[in-house]
Amino acid sequence: MSPRDQGLLLPDHASLVVHGRDQPGIVAVVASVLARHGANIVALDQHSDDPAGGAFFQRTVFHLANYAACHPLLEQELDAALAEDFDLEWRFTDLSVPKRVAIFASKSDHCLLDLIWRQRRGELPMTISMVVSNHPDMAEDVRGFGIPFFLVPTQDKAAAEAEHLRLLQGNVDLVVLARYMQILSSPFLEALGVPVINIHHSFLPAFIGAAPYRKAKERGVKLIGATAHYVTEDLDEGPIIEQDVVRASHRDSAAELARRGADVERQVLSRAVLWHCQDRVILHDRQTIVF
Amino acid sequence: MSPRDQGLLLPDHASLVVHGRDQPGIVAVVASVLARHGANIVALDQHSDDPAGGAFFQRTVFHLANYAACHPLLEQELDAALAEDFDLEWRFTDLSVPKRVAIFASKSDHCLLDLIWRQRRGELPMTISMVVSNHPDMAEDVRGFGIPFFLVPTQDKAAAEAEHLRLLQGNVDLVVLARYMQILSSPFLEALGVPVINIHHSFLPAFIGAAPYRKAKERGVKLIGATAHYVTEDLDEGPIIEQDVVRASHRDSAAELARRGADVERQVLSRAVLWHCQDRVILHDRQTIVF
Amino acid sequence: MSPRDQGLLLPDHASLVVHGRDQPGIVAVVASVLARHGANIVALDQHSDDPAGGAFFQRTVFHLANYAACHPLLEQELDAALAEDFDLEWRFTDLSVPKRVAIFASKSDHCLLDLIWRQRRGELPMTISMVVSNHPDMAEDVRGFGIPFFLVPTQDKAAAEAEHLRLLQGNVDLVVLARYMQILSSPFLEALGVPVINIHHSFLPAFIGAAPYRKAKERGVKLIGATAHYVTEDLDEGPIIEQDVVRASHRDSAAELARRGADVERQVLSRAVLWHCQDRVILHDRQTIVF
Amino acid sequence: MSPRDQGLLLPDHASLVVHGRDQPGIVAVVASVLARHGANIVALDQHSDDPAGGAFFQRTVFHLANYAACHPLLEQELDAALAEDFDLEWRFTDLSVPKRVAIFASKSDHCLLDLIWRQRRGELPMTISMVVSNHPDMAEDVRGFGIPFFLVPTQDKAAAEAEHLRLLQGNVDLVVLARYMQILSSPFLEALGVPVINIHHSFLPAFIGAAPYRKAKERGVKLIGATAHYVTEDLDEGPIIEQDVVRASHRDSAAELARRGADVERQVLSRAVLWHCQDRVILHDRQTIVF
To answer: Could you name the active-site residues (chains A, B, C, D) (predicted)?
Structure first.
């Protein structure tokens, strides 16, 4: 069974992500600590953006019998080995445990339903804890899958965000905005304390503001794209996780461009969510390293 | 032999492009005139962006024995048939005659050499009349192919454009900017009187100004693109002919991104030049119809 | 509203497909008959594989007020105009009427559910008359959408095909095999009398027989593909409608290759079904012309 | 400067590829030996096809001041550390040294010229030691680049292979068949002792034998592909390094399909050659691991 065997949870497997200033010896220290505990490394990716003091990134997936029990000691030893000599951040992720995800949606259902079906089919290592929407339209569909649906109107933004926090805090590891057409405030993002992934359409060249597909049509673009990114306080400017495009032509109406865009949006979003849930994405400044 | 048998000139074949306000009956009139002259339609594309008075576009490729001799009468009849009842523009293009093309380049050779090799291999229905550059670097390579090379320094922009006009006027049907890093003035474009195609890098999102690949690297883009477009007075804002992208990752340095960009640039540019030389591109407002 | 405005039915729009030996004048005759009836051509594609007596293909989409009422007379005139002078086949398709489709499935649900969701979202101009399966697994899901589900076991192949005919004849315009793992007999296909579209995985190079993804894994393929085709008596050898691929690598287990294959299968199948329902596919010998 | 900064040779950088049966501790041993010598790991990829005794693959790129001088001792220590406890194969590659490559070609020039231009532009970390052909057609072009051209007729196959060995042995690290239309014998491949990379067209489904593009045209394929692979005694059955496809349609003649195929062939071949020269490809049974 491969660690990329996506969607299947991996018993007694965990990932270790290490991130910081590059220095000789990091890989050796990490590998030694893991080997000492009898962990077998099954995948290892490492990247350095400049060996002379640049940033260093490493993701290791290992198998360790009885990981849950061994984990505290392993963490303690790694802390001792790394923290003193190196100035690094690291995190362990138990790959046998699904991420708990909340999906936010508005009226468009294509991204929401795609995530639900993929999760149900075992293609995403996550559970869907709830769907939150500012429209009642999809309540029945969502509840038909046995997933809680919460309607939170957004006319009063402060009240809505308070309600969101009440629903989410402690309950989820990730929030996915599946074409949720509301801006999240910086204080909300800070209070939330878990990552938020968003999907938005992308064009060459970019079309900003309302009615992007109409503008793209008028400009005769030949490609329609989508970008999945982490949400930061700068709307649509967060670190990019994944992007893709599909071809378009003069034959496509603005409505057809939007439909093609929907197709590529849901593919890009599902890949970004998968990779995040597999702990394969490392944030660094305004970019991501995706192993 | 198919009309898409690209790069081979087609004896006794011509294309007719018709463009204007959509009205019932246009296709019938065009087809009847062609049929009366014994022309056999071998390809026909038609597009209407709104049947209720929108814009109408048609490209017909036909075979007509002895086209060169029959052409004046054919044109006269079509003029009579169309001009009176319909408010349309049209043009014939003799597909047995190669386009005469000037290529402008600066220091990057990837697009220039790609066009030269493709032309030499018979993949483009054109002759390369000359290469014009503001740098002497590629003189020897270009002349090695038997193509005239003209060095026109651009320190004095007015003098340079005057020299460009002297070289080009009457001699070429198309100018291709193959990574030519100089802006062409509006008066120059007007005096030139033939289309100009440019290639430039494109990103999702867009990075404006200098060092785009460095900016793209900092932002962690996952796609690198290129756009070929007709040059208008708005730099890089002309009607798009073709676009494409390649994938990128955190492993790619800014230099590697630029090399991948070069690969996609030359592919996109060669497709745009091919389609233009086959008379398959129709300009309409700020967009193109590519049949 | 464009004729490519896929999924939306087009009131008072129809397509005319003409197919036969190429001769001068066909386009003119067709266009004249349509113009005489006041039809406005909104899209026209034409292809000739050899102007000197090769095969000719034309698809015309036109708007004609009150098409349903005018249609018989239009057909009669076209018959008179074409049948006597030209040896051609043609067909009209009313683009305001959805195709009636039966979907056959076995245990895999990815293609079936993708078609159901797209149809529900208005992306496919069709109704789903029924789902037929040799396994009961998906009965509940399918019926949850209000679609009849029929379980037809296939241990007794003759009995199964008799039951299939009883269900389908007169009720459907198209059968889609959405990963239906049973071979249809030639007599059945003949008796059925409507087209059947199938989807199957495809590889470079091809892997025939059982466990194709395992074989592809062993051989280290870098691309995973899918092919949608019309079903003929030669299994998996029918005329190809659409194909596509996704990248793969050594990191992907055979199970992951199968999941990626599932993704591309459903995309390819949905495009093939869409184009068929829009009457954009013309069969010719062992190939298709897709306008 | 990144180790993926392709085409630029990397002073004092080397790669270490390790390959064998997976066992816990390999990564730690390798990393420790490198760290002890002051080597800084700048890239590390590791793959295990089954942690429970499957195959293990690792590629490490490291910077080590004065690598050429330190190398023998490093190798000796690694040998001691790995050979006794683990049953592994490994190899070092000095990334500051270009590979010496011979290109074999016949009459088609697209792959040959693409490699020459890319090498000249610094996109490939290799030198082209010679071009060998069974046709004189390209002698002048090749020699114009300052590259030796050897004409070796192949009527007498044994004599030709003897001449090939005389030219190649000791002089090259890699042979690239750039559309060389002759089969190499098993004894020749064995005597040669360096890898051979070939490019061939690929289709979905596969068309075997002569005139593949005509067959693909008759079958109406929608994709045209190419596969680069190592040459083994089974013609066209060697381990795949890279594959790609381009779209095709009914509009494309067999000649146009061949031209599109040529475009994808040269892209796929140049990527395979690049990755091989960067020592990123590991052979394993009938497949490759490409890091």
So the answer is: 236
Q: Are B93 and B14 in contact (CB under 8 A)?
A: yes
| Pair C85, C193 in one domain | no
Same domain, B21 and B68: yes
The boundaries of the domain holding residue B59 are 13-94
- Give yes or no: residues B241 and B129 share one domain: yes
pLDDT, mean of each 10-residue run, chain A (291 residues): 54 94 87 92 87 87 92 92 82 95 95 94 94 96 94 96 96 97 92 96 73 82 92 83 92 85 93 96 93 92
D48–A49 CB contact, under 8 Å: no
Cβ–Cβ below 8 Å for A287 and B218: yes
| Domain presence at residue A202 | yes
Cβ atoms within 10 Å of C173's Cβ, excluding its own: 18
Q: Which chains touch B (3 or more CB pairs under 8 A)?
A: A, C, D
Looking at the structure, tell me whether residues D65 and D141 fall in a common domain.
no
A51 and A143 in a single domain? The answer is no
Q: Answer whether B87 touches D (CB < 8 Å).
A: no
Q: Shortest CB distance from A4 goes to which of C8, C256, C263?
A: C256
Q: Which two tokens stand for residue A110?
A: 């294509």
The CATH number of residue A117's host domain is 3.40.50.170
Beta bridge partners of A45: A59, D45
**Residue ending a domain, choose from D94, D113, D128:** D94
Same domain for B267 and B249, yes or no, is yes
pLDDT one-digit tens code per residue, C52-93: 778 999 999 999 999 999 999 999 999 988 877 788 899 999
- Give the active site residue among C236, C244, C279, C285: C236
Residue D4 within a domain: no
Whether residue A251 and residue C7 make contact (CB cut-off 8 A), yes or no, is no
Which helix (H) or strand (E) is A168 found in, with range? helix A157-168
Q: How confident is the model at residue C212 (pLDDT cuts 50, 70, 90)?
A: confident
Structure confidence at residue D157 (pLDDT): 95
Answer whether D206 sits within 8 Å of C204, measured CB to CB: yes
D75 with D166, same domain?
no
Q: How many domains does chain B have?
A: 2
- Enumerate residues 6+ apart whose C-beta is below 8 A from B268: B199, B226, B227, B228, B242, B243, B244
Q: Is residue A81 part of a domain?
A: yes
Please give the full DSSP string across chain C, using - where no structure is assigned: --TT-TTS--TTEEEEEEEEE--TTHHHHHHHHHHHTT-EEEEEEEEES-TTT-EEEEEEEEE-TTHHHHHHHHHHHHHHHHHTT--EEEEEEETTSPEEEEEEE-S--HHHHHHHHHHHTT-SSEEEEEEEESSSTTHHHHHHTT--EEE---SSHHHHHHHHHHHHTTT-SEEEESS--SPPPHHHHHHH-S-EEEEEEE-SS---SS-HHHHHHHHT-SEEEEEEEE--SSTT-SPEEEEEEEE--TTS-HHHHHHHHHHHHHHHHHHHHHHHHTT-EEEETTEEEE-
Is C120 part of any domain? Answer: yes
Q: Which of B71, B94, B117 is the last residue of a domain?
A: B94
Chain D residue numbers with beta carbons less than 8 Å from the beta carbon of C288 are: 220, 250
